[in-house]
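Final paragraph of the annual report: two paired records, presented back to back.
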Amino acid sequence: MPTESHISPRRVAIVHDWLISSRGGEKVLEAILELFPQAEIFTLFYDSNRVSEKIRRHPVHVSFLNRFPQAHRYYRHLLPLFPMAIERFDLTDFDLVISSSHCVAKGVIVGPQALHLCYCHTPMRYAWDRYRDYFPPGWKEGLVFPFIHYLRIWDVTSSARVDGFIANSSWVARRIEKYYRRSSEIIHPFVDLSAYPLSEKKRESHYLAVSAFAPYKRLDLAIEACRKLDRKLRIVGEGQDSALLKRLAGDNVTFLGRLDSDGLRREYAEARALLFPGEEDFGITPLEAMASGTPVLAFGRGGTLDSILPGETGLFFPEQTVESLTQAMLKFEASEMHFSPARCRTRAESFGREAFQRRFTEVLQQLDQKQK
C-alpha cells in the first residue's frame, strides 16, 4: 500500500477534466487518490459506470455541462463552454488542489492560501501543436479559429494560477516551457507490472500494434510497412478510422478489436515486436509490451524517448514514413537475437506505480516547503 503524503491539509480537491472512460489518465488519477483517501473529485463530466471503484468511493462533483442531453457522447462539441465550467467550481475551502489536466482542469480558481499542483498530461493538443490535425484548412476551420484564438489566450493566462507543474515526460515538459513559459518536474506515468508478466515463451513471427484508431496514431504506416515486407500484423483496438484502416489492410493483417486483459497479455507475449508509429506525449503501450518482454519499434519523437532504450529494448525510426519504418523493421530482424526479454522487463520495472507515488509525494512536499 502507498504511503500517504506527509502533507495533511484540511481538505484536498483533485480536478480531472472528465471521467467517462478508464484509460491511462484515469490510472494516474487512481494512484494520486491513493495518496489522499480523503480527497474530493471535481470533473466536467462523470459516468460512474465507466470508472473504477477506486474513483467511485470518493465524493465526485460535476459541472453543469454534465446535465446536457447525451453530454457523455457529444462532450467535445461543448468545448467552448469548458473554461467557464471549470472556473465555476467553488474550491475556496480547499487547502490543496491537484489538477490532472490535459485540457482545462488546470484552470480552476483556488483560494488565496491554497496550494495548486498540476500534473500535466499535455498542454491542449487541439489548441497548440495538433491544431491542424483537428481542424484542417477549410470553412469549418474558419468558423472555429476565433474560439481557438480565445482558448489559447485563456490557456496561457490560466497557467499562471498553478503553483507548480509536473510533466508526464520530457516531451511534455518542453511543451509546457514553450507555451506557458513555466518549468516543470518530470514524473512518468506507470505501468501495471502485475498485469503484464514477463513471457519467455518462443515468439511468433508476426508484429503487433495496440492503439485507438485515430489519425495521429498512424496505424496506416504499420499496415503499409507490413504489406511492403510481407510480414503478418495483428492489431488490437478500435475507433474512428476503423473503416479506412480495414480498406488499407491486406490478408496479412488481422484486426482483433478491443481485447480483455487476458487477451492483451497473450498478444504481448506472442508478438515478435510492437510497432508504435504515432507520436505520443508518453505512451503506456510500449511499457506494457516491454513488461511482457517484447521490444518496441517506435517513431523517434514524443514520450517514448524517455522509455525505450535503443538497441536494448527497441529501436526508433526517424521519420513518419513507410520507408523509415521498414528500414527499422529490417534492422531489428537482423539483430533480433540481441533484444533480451529480461532486459525489456527490467526497463519497464523502473516505471512502476510505487516509484510514481514516491516521486509525486517528494515533489509535492518540496513545493509546499517552497510556498511557506
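The closing record of the year follows.
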Amino acid sequence: MVDLKKEIILVAREMGIDKVGFTSKERLGATPPSGNLAGVLPNARSAISLVVAFDRPAMRAFLAKEDQLAHCKDQSLAYKKLKDASIAIANLLKERGHEAASPFANFTWRRDVAWMTMAPPISHKYVAVASGVGWMGWSGNVMTPEYGAAICLSSVVTSTELEPTPLLEGDPPCDTCRLCVPVCPSYYISQKEKTSVHIGGRAFYLHKRASNLRCLVTCSGGNGVKGPNARWSTWSHRVLDLPGRGNDELFERRVLDYARGPGGELLSRAIELEKYGAQNWEQYEVLVGLLKNRAFSCGYCMLICWPDMDDRKKNYRLLLTSGRVIKDRGTSVNSRGI
C-alpha cells in the first residue's frame, strides 16, 4: 500500500494540508469509545490524520486585540482545506475499491452519552496522536512538534490497511508550561488535577475536565472575562456572574439562565448547536452560516501553545496586556489596563 499512501499524501499536500499521518485500528484499541473507528465505518482498518496549522501573525494580532477577523478568516480557510482534502481522499480510496468515510467531529456528537459530554463519533485528536502527528497535551489539545497546538484536524477512516506512521517519541513539554490554564476565562482547565488516555500503547496525561459548558460559554463569546475586575478579556465584552473553579452545577444553571434571558441569543444558539449538532460537512456549513456574522472570541488554550517556550511566553504577555473589549464601542476597540 506504499503507492496508495504516496497518492494520499500528494492529494493532501496539493490541497494545503500541512501534515499527514496514518494509524491502524489496533493502535486505538485502548482509547475511549470515540477512538473506535468502527463507530463511523464498521469495516474500518485504518485512518488518516490531516493537520492544518493556523497563521502565526494572525494569531498574535488576535491575542493582542489588534485584529479579530484575520484569524477568524484563517480558521475558516483551514476548515475548508480540511473539508476539501478529506472528501478528495475519501473519493480516491473509493475509486480504488475501498470503503471510506470523512466524519466532521466539531459539531457532531454521539447520542448515547449525556448532554454536554460532547463525545464525537470519532475523535480527530485520538486519530492524530495514534498517527504520530502529535502528542496529547495538558489542555486536551493535540500538540505537534512543528506547530504546537495551534492547529485544526480532520480524519479519513477507511477499510483498507495502511502502514501506520511511527509514533512520536518523548513527551509534550506541558509540565514546565501549562500556560493553557490561566488563559481560560471560564476555569475549564485544571492546574493539577489530571486524567489519562491510552493511545498506541502509552498513557498521555491531561487535565481533569470540568463541565464542557465552561469551554463553550467562553469560545462562543457568551462570557469574556474571569471576573468583573479582570484586566483582560476575550474578544467578547460580556461579563456574566459565573462561579470560578469548581461548582459546575451552579455554573451550568447560571449559563442556561443567561441563555434564556435578555441578550442571550448568541449563547442560546451556541448551546443549541452543541446539543443538536451536524452529521456531515454540509450540515456544518449550514450551521456556521447561521453564525456568519458572529466571529468567535477565544480558543486561547490552543493559540498560545507554540512549540518554542519563548514564543508561548510572548503570546501569554500579549494576551495579558491586551486590555478589555468595552461594550458599545465596537469589537475593534479595546481599553488597555482596565
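Residues 330-338 have pLDDT under 50 and may be disordered. This concludes the annual technical report; the extension proposal builds directly on these records.
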